């Protein structure tokens, strides 16, 4: 029997950018986005469902009893739910953090009651929380929204709050320094979005609203930063077009 994921549950169709908009304002995670989020992320991020499922599988293997799991930038809690369904230790406590009230309100209604005992939803900026006693930290497509100059400090605080042998799962959209390579990867991502029913107008308007908000970096930048932070082992375990996931072991 398949697992229940948030994407299987009712989500409205994402049509936010289907009409020409007079003024394109920077993308933010408000109520309109929260309403359509499962549809939006599944049709926009290649490999999203796989990454969420693998987050559960990896967490179950690396979880240490009586430690915390963190889902940073949890949105509707898909990664937290994947962890809750995969980790069978009764001591598991998952702290799912997001600074969007709209996302957390929706998450409260969507997450199955039986998992709300072990998942604590916390409304906060992930740059202002204390990470402690953590064996699993997940940042699935969240670091890309943090100002680049703040990223090292955030990763250092995460590292300091982690147990030895604990893991960070870091999923991000990637950038390429070689212009041809960058263009090819962007084109392939657009093919993916078109195949999922987004029009050229939707793709272009959404891209413009994300330009100042979602700031991707290269794979090398991520790997180097994780190593400089102190992680013993850093491995890229997934890539689909320009979307990737890394595991970093303390
Ligand atoms: C998933 N991980 O479905 N503090 C807290 N939350 C933040 C911050 C911040 N400083 N900045 C952004 N966010 C999820 C998907 S979405 C990715 C993550 C995407 C939150 C923001 O409110 C949003 O909910 C999430 O990070 C990014 O597995 O939409 O591409």
Explain what you see:
The chain is of the alpha/beta class and 250 residues long. The protein folds into two domains: 48-173 and 220-249, Rossmann fold; 182-210, no CATH class. It contains eight helices and seven strands. The protein has a seven-stranded mixed beta sheet, with helices on both faces. Helix 1 (31-44) packs across helix 4 and helix 2 (48-62) crosses helix 3. The chain binds ligand GEK. Residues 29, 41, 52, 73-75, 78-79, 97-100, 103, 125-127, 140-142, 145-146 line the site of ligand GEK.
Small-molecule binders here are:
ligand GEK
Q: Which superfamily, in CATH terms, is the homologous superfamily of the largest domain?
A: Vaccinia Virus protein VP39
Please give the domain count: 2
Strand content bin: 15-25%
| Number of β-strand runs | 7
pLDDT below 50 for ≥5 consecutive residues: which ranges?
none
**Order of helix and strand elements from N to C terminus:** HHEHEHEEHEHHHEE
Distance between the termini: 34 Å
What is the CATH C level class of the largest domain, in words? Answer: Alpha Beta
- What is the CATH-assigned architecture of the largest domain? 3-Layer(aba) Sandwich
The percentage helix is 40-55%
Supply the helix-strand structural class.
alpha/beta
* CATH fold label of the largest domain: Rossmann fold
Radius of gyration: 18 Å
Short description:
It contains eight helices and seven strands; from the N terminus they run H-H-E-H-E-H-E-E-H-E-H-H-H-E-E. The protein is 40% helix and 20% strand.
């Amino acid at each position: 029997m398949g697992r229940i994921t948030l994407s299987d549950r009712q989500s409205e169709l994402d049509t936010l950018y289907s009409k020409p908009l007079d003024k394109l304002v920077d993308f933010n995670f408000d109520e309109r986005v929260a309403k359509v989020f499962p549809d939006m992320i599944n049709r926009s991020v290649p490999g999203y469902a796989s990454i969420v499922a693998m987050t559960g599988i990896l967490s179950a293997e690396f979880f240490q009893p009586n430690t915390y799991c963190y889902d940073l930038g949890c949105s509707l809690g898909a990664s937290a739910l994947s962890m809750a369904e995969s980790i069978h230790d009764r001591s598991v406590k998952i702290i799912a953090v997001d600074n969007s009230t709209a996302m957390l309100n929706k998450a409260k209604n969507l997450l199955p009651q039986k998992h709300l005992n072990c998942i604590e939803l916390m409304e906060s900026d992930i740059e202002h929380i204390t990470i402690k006693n953590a064996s699993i930290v997940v940042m699935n497509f969240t670091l890309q929204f943090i100002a680049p100059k703040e990223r090292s400090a955030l990763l250092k605080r995460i590292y300091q709050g982690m147990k030895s042998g604990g893991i960070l799962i870091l999923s991000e959209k990637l950038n390429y320094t070689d212009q041809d390579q960058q263009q090819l990867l962007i084109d392939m991502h657009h093919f993916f979005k078109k195949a999922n029913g987004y029009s050229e107008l939707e793709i272009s308007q959404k891209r413009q609203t994300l330009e100042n908000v979602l700031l991707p970096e290269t794979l090398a930048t991520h790997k180097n930063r994780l190593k400089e932070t102190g992680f013993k082992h850093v491995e890229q375990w997934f890539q689909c077009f320009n979307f990737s996931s890394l595991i970093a072991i303390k």
